[in-house]
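All the exercises in this workshop are built on plain-text protein records. A record pairs a protein's sequence with a compact description of its fold. Read left to right, the backbone structure tokens trace the chain's path through space. Once this layout is familiar, the rest of the handout is easier to follow. Here is such a record, shown just as it appears in the course material:
>
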Amino acid sequence: MSDTRNFLRQSGVRNRDLVGAILAASITLISALGLSVLSGWLITRAWQMPPILDLAIAITAVRALGISRAVFRYIDRLISHRLALRALRNLRSTVFQSIAETTTPHSDAILTQGDQLTRLSKDTERVTDFIVRSLVPSGTALVVSIIAVTFTFLLLPSAGLVLLVSFCVTGLFIPWLSQRSSNKLLQRTAVESEDAWEQKLQEVLSHRVEFHAAGIAQQRADSAIDASRRASDDQIRATRNDSVQAFLLSLSCDLTVLAIAWLGLQNYSGSPMWLGMLVILSLAAFESHAELAKASIHADVVSTASQALAEVTGKALPSPPEASLFTDTTLKVSHLQCLHTDKTWDFTLAPNERRLITGPSGVGKTTLLYTLAGLLEPRSGSASIGGDSSAAARRSLIRMHPENEWLFSTNIRENIRVANPDAPDALIEATLRALGMGQWLDTNQGLDTVLVDGASSLSSGQRRRLLLARALCSTAPILLLDEPTAHISHTDASRFLDILLHKPLPGALPQRSLIIVSHSQ
């Protein structure tokens, strides 16, 4: 569980936040406990037919507790789920950053879109669900159990001891037994089956056009359906012990109530009304233990998800130094050989210099850009900035924009701000208009236009213009652009290259260093 604790800590979950969520949940169950006990007192007192005024306070208290139970349940859900959702937001940011830093088209750490969806969606949810499904229920059960045992002990010490032993059985032994009897292989298989189904579904949805053109669309859809069926079957097999756990909890509760009732009849010498409250108290107190067995099993699921996330975040590259620490942005490439190619590169890129690299496919142009950006290690040679040849130094100053850069299913503004979160609307719009997107903005909703299907919402030329605008809105002093004029008409492509190589640049910086790779002159 060390990975889980580390992720929760990275997600900003503090002990005092957990205490607040546990207290809110405990107040909810204490209200329910008080409602049951006071209702029992009313029942046992009402048969004596006292004056109604004698019961007025108790009747009002029952109403108040009934209302407060619902109110505190709402507050409890707000606090605990707000904590979990905030942790989920922070954890997804951490995982996304790790994926962004480790995933390149040529790296061993590459993740498919389905893998990324699983890590970012399912596994992060499983880890943060640990707060709501395990930590809060366990802490709440502890608080309510202490209060119930204390109150029962004050009424009848022997009954308090019986309730304490029973709570140890339902709160410790049954969860332990459930965790031991739960087949961890089945639990892991259920998680992996669900992840496999998510990946199959993502594959079918993302590549439906290609699959249809290849005539295998139905085959891939059937494969996703089979994966869904296997996930459901594995989930059923993994939860077969739930009925056994429910039976053991119910049996423990029933035996405890019978034992306390017998002890009360034999030994309690006080008012019979308090004897009824004693029995109802023990019966109501078990509500807090109902989810403990599931909480212990969910801990295994969380452990599996944490290990999967650790494999991603553990491969994260070290954080680059601040760009402001560098005064010399000269990029010097000496006898550099990149992965999967024998070509040797030697050149120097002075500050604000712009360079076009052309050549046939397969010569290693894109691999060179990834190496210069610090995302791939070179086979030999070096690439340095201001004399610093570390990959972290290059990542701090260089931004690489690949040809297949992702467009998100959100509006134009947020897609551009991927490269510069602080980019103002005026800068974004001016850059897009300089790249020929003005008419398109005017005929749609401007920067608020939502790309419902991501890149599929645009033509290939519009997509290239939008990605180029994203790159130019970045504040990086050195940009590496892979095929920025692909899928654009020859006239516009020539104009864009002329701007990129010889004229003041649109975007955040009119002058900066550029390396452009292209198949054509």
In short: Residues 52-102 form the longest helix (51 residues).
